[in-house]
Specification:
The complex is a heterodimer of chains A (54) and B (562). Helices cover 46% and strands 0% of the residues of chain A. By secondary structure, chain A is mostly helical. With 562 residues, chain B is mostly helical. The chains are: A mainly alpha (54), B mainly alpha (562).
Amino acid sequence: MTDPVVDPVASTEEDDDLGFFPSWNSLYWSVVVYTAASILVLYWITVALDYRIS
Amino acid sequence: MSLLDWGVFLVYFGGVVGFAIYQSRKNVGMEGYFLANRRLPWYAIGLSVMATQASAITFIGTTGQAFDSGMEFIQVYLPQPIAMILICVFFVPFFYKAKLYTAYEYLENRFDSKTRSLTAFLFLVSRGLAAGIVLYAPAIVLSVIMGWDETVTIVIMGVITILYTMVGGITAVIWTDVVQMLMMFAGIGAALVILFGTLPPEVGVTDVVYIGGLQNMWQSIDLSWDPSNRYTLWTGMIGGLFLALAYFGTDQSQVQRYLTAKSLKESRLGLIFNAFVKVPMQFAILAIGVLLFVFYHFEQPPIIFNSAEVAVVQESDRGDEFRQLEAEHGRVFAQRREATMGLLEARRQGAELSDLQLQIGTYDDQLVELRSDAKTMISEVRGASSNDVNYVFPSYLIKYVPAGILGLMIAVIFAAAMSSLDSELTALSSATVIDFYQRWFKKDGTDDHYLMVSRVVTLAWGAIAVFVALFAGRLGSLIEAVNLVGSYFYGSLLGVFLLAFMVKDANGTGAFWGLLAGMGSVILVAQTTDISFLYYNVVGAVAVLVIGTLISRMAPPAPEPA
């Protein structure tokens, strides 16, 4: 059995040029914000475009 | 199809195969065949990950589902962006830095050979049969809609995919996936434009939104807590998150894609690309279904879109009864059409709408009930449940789409099927050669030898996929059983990887028995509760983590065979 442990944190960022994003953390946080925004937009669609008459 | 359609279709096929083989010319050895010599850019990986996930049934089945029940299916995809981040942070560095060929190799490095072999075996069994279904499902739809011979369709799709996958390996697969995914984007865009174009000229975008809203077809978020309902925000965000982690983080057909990247950064960017694009794409596909729902307020839809099922029931002793349902469906449709036109006119004039809205709601309910009665009758006559959702979109295409575009759309359906099959074949081949042949049977072969074996194994898996597709109709219960097993082990498989990443003192004994106990837990939950199958992934993963940790702390690791 070979050494099982590869440290994911130590073994990352060999190239930090992410264009618009200053760091990986900012890119990941933008995905989180994007997901939250998507859910809010879909919730708005759900509520605003419900034309049923009860 | 017209000559123009055939031209578009054939140019697509020729172009894809030529492009694939051209791109693979720089492949060297087995690493080239399975990992493209680790030199691919993020956008190719990102598009290939999407193309692998999007099968033909995603394209035609999802639109049919939205036609019947609206946008709610989108909730299953909402956690995917979050899953992509978690995979980028916790999974990709482990796989990439260890220079692996398969995800299961990692489990031997971390635990032992039996855990690796069990997970690879589960993958091979479920994916081997699933590859056949990837071919069978669109072929059966096209045979009914286009009148094409099912066998010929399966063989053409299968042989072309096997050919370029066998010759070009993963490089050919990923670059064809890029083309095929771009074709799918074009197809989705074209479908939306065409659907608007085939509506009556006086019906505008706001009218479309309004008519969809009358039946709440735009409902994308359901906040109810019912765990047996698979389409709620909570089921999607919890169960769907674990499913996405299992699929993108541990399934070789996806892991292999990001192992081909030229750097860790490119791997991650490919996944982040998916995080941003997948939800809007799925929204657009589902919107096609809702647009179809609106379109069929103005054009008479068949009561059942699957003409083969209709033919069976019409020729049975309940044929007259079915024709009465069809006639009633036509009558109610005509009333709804008139009421819909009246409602839109009243809306333009600012008149009172509630009576007309209620009237249309009543007609909608009647049409849904008539369609449900027709499905029930078909199920009773055939002795098997009616499958109609996959036929809604193709039947629209064949009837209403102009020449040239139809060829493009049929090519898109083929592209979706082939881009999933090719990825399955390379993944199956890599797991067979790396996790079994090289591990257990021939450790000291030359690179050329393994390359030759890999091509033969790709051919063999392709032949199995075609065989399963050709006989899928007769393998019904077996395939259902395998799919069931697949849903039982997916979360447990994720649990083994989480155990490896998160529990430092976990060992092979704990992982192996934890995996089996996790699958057992899922079977128990499935048999004794009615929770949505998406939660099985949570149950499996948590059970493996807990039981695997406990066993690891109680039992020493077993000695390893050579």
